[in-house]
């Protein structure tokens, strides 16, 4: 199983990149899409809104755990509840983290989700995880082993700075990452490409591809329509497909 984690600062369009990756990879692979962003935008971008999230299961579990039989293995029970909310689309499966309604962190839920991912290793060829913006998701260590950490940057040095910080934090936390690469999104012209390329080289970042600003994708976003409606000959779709081929993960 190949695990791909999509990360980056807010506003870079990482969820759109994640959705296009799932769409492209699921043409030939068995794919599990994990929406680890509390806003659950990946499900909407894929045109497959989820009805239950890990957050929902967590809240229900907190309400009922004291009433469960003492001899019941509560971790196994919670784990089975999480497994039950995996939704099956035509070409991929999806599960969403969501957010808890009450106070508390995701530590326990993330531990269970990590266990579920490890149990499902034999069921899928690819796992694509769309994370929330920033660095917090790395410190939770939802995934112990990452084959590809793909950081999405916009056309800015701040986007590349975030990629550099993500790389540094992954090393500090001793997260096992086989490869870290950056993808530049919403690129409008050759000047942007060259400038980003030069900055990435100075920072020793692997810049694996450029995704052009795509009017068709922007129109779908504006209308709240899923990216499954984006045509195969659209600039963004073709560019992401080229990245998949370059990474040899298709």
TrEMBL record:
GO terms for molecular function: ATP binding; ATP hydrolysis activity. It comes from the Archaea. The keyword Protein biosynthesis does not apply. Coiled coil: none annotated. One of its GO terms (biological process) is negative regulation of cell division. GO terms for cellular component: cytoplasmic side of plasma membrane; cytosol. Pfam families: CbiA. The keyword NAD does not apply. Keywords: ATP-binding, Nucleotide-binding. Residues 4-226 form the CobQ/CobB/MinD/ParA nucleotide binding domain. This is ATP-binding protein. It comes from Candidatus Syntropharchaeum caldarium.
């Amino acid at each position: 199983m190949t695990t791909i984690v999509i990360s980056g600062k807010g506003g870079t369009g990482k969820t759109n990149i994640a959705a296009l990756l799932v769409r492209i990879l699921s043409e030939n692979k068995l794919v599990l899409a994990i929406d680890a962003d509390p806003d659950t935008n990946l499900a909407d971008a894929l045109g497959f809104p989820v009805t239950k999230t890990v957050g929902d299961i967590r809240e229900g579990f907190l309400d009922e755990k004291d009433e469960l039989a003492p001899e019941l293995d509560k971790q196994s029970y919670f784990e089975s509840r999480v497994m039950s909310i995996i939704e099956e689309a035509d070409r991929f499966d999806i599960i969403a983290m969501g957010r808890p309604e009450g106070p508390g962190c995701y530590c326990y839920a993330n531990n269970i989700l990590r266990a579920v991912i490890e149990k499902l290793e034999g069921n899928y060829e690819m796992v694509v995880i769309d994370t929330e913006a920033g660095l917090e998701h790395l410190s939770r260590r939802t995934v112990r082993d990452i084959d590809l950490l793909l950081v999405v940057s916009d056309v800015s040095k701040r986007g590349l700075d975030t990629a550099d910080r993500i790389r540094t934090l992954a090393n500090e936390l001793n997260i096992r990452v086989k490869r870290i690469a950056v993808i530049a999104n919403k690129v409008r012209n050759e000047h942007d490409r060259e400038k980003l390329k030069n900055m990435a080289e100075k920072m020793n970042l692997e810049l694996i591809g450029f995704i052009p600003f795509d009017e068709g994708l922007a129109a779908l976003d504006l209308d709240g329509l899923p990216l499954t409606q984006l045509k195969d000959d659209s600039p963004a779709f073709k560019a992401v497909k080229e990245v998949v081929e370059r990474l040899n993960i298709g």
